[in-house]
């Protein structure tokens, strides 16, 4: 296959795979697509280890790194050394007790005394994502992607000075234009179906608008899980697809077994756009956690990054308990079509086979 993005990155298939799991990233790149590692959960030191591992397992194929530098968040003007303390002080007591009560109702025990200290900010801010960018640029990455708005112009410049292309996720044509203004090379137009932070416009409606608005290549994201959907994304004018949920259940993924099972059983109605994870709307698996934040008892969610700071320990506690009814995580509507565990290579093979069949079917329709 040949599009501007396959030429840009020297890849065989215009299939981009976002994953927090290095094994998936390396497997996708080795199969001819482009794996992109989500840096969010890693400290700079951990990221260094992950990227070194990918370098050793990717057979010289291109791969990317994704960071989260939100265009707006609480505390963006705080000094780095006082960021966590000042943000913690902004979390109301009523919110803390709501979370504690919810955990108590579901019998979730506290963390054991020897549990490692959690990280409440992760890479959710400019201050915590920049060190990740520095680490990433010390590796032979081909792409730096940013979620939640245009990356800062100096970060785009820095990436370019290392010969690294920059992508950013957009959920409206206006976002896409802003990204092109700061020098982004590829726009990922992500529809509301997508897992993770997502806007309101569906992929089917969004892609043609973004393609018409910008002159850089566009990747279609949100609800792409099979070859027919890939063909649709390219038919809408995209030059490749960017996928996320699809990789949560592959053999190589380090997704917890409970989450894998929930995804395999879920229908497309089992996700919801909720602020209960980070404070910005993200599509999550719908369950008693997301429902509780919508209930009449809910104090309402806090703005980014306060919400995640509020709930991060609670989510770790839930993950270590039997209260799987509260365990929420990002997942897109495509999980309704994901019914079996397959290898990454198989998923790519099926995407391509079904893509070819879809094109043949369309050809036949045209000929008849
Ligand atoms: C579990 C999960 C975590 C995600 N985390 C991030 C992230 O940290 N940064 C990012 O740019 N996108 C993130 N996304 C969004 C993906 O990059 C991608 O745009 C989205 O999954 C595409 O839609 P799909 O889920 O329908 O394939 C995440 C998606 C999922 C499912």
What is the count of distinct domains? 2
Low-pLDDT residue spans: none
Ligands (ions, cofactors included): flavin mononucleotide
* Number of H- or I-type helical stretches: 14
Fraction of residues in helix: 40-55%
CATH class of the largest domain: Alpha Beta
Note the overall shape: globular
Q: Overview of this structure, please?
A:
With 368 residues, the protein is α/β, with parallel strands linked by helices. The chain has two domains: 4-73 and 124-254 and 342-366, Aldolase class I (TIM Barrel), CATH 3.20.20.70; 80-120 and 256-326, no CATH class. It has 14 helices and eleven strands. Helix 7 (153-161) links the parallel strand 4 and strand 5 (165-170). The relative contact order is 0.15. The protein binds flavin mononucleotide. Flavin mononucleotide (FMN) binds next to strand 3, strand 4 and strand 9. This is NAD(P)H-dependent flavin oxidoreductase YrpB, nitropropane dioxygenase family. Keywords: Dioxygenase, Flavoprotein, FMN, Oxidoreductase. Pfam families: NMO (PF03060).
Care to give the gist of this entry?
By secondary structure, this protein is of the alpha/beta class. The chain has helices at residues 4-9, 22-30, 44-57, 83-89, 93-105, 126-136, 153-161, 173-181, 203-213, 227-235, 257-265, 288-294, 306-319, 344-367; strands at residues 15-19, 34-38, 63-68, 143-147, 165-170, 186-190, 196-197, 218-221, 240-243, 271-274, 282-285.
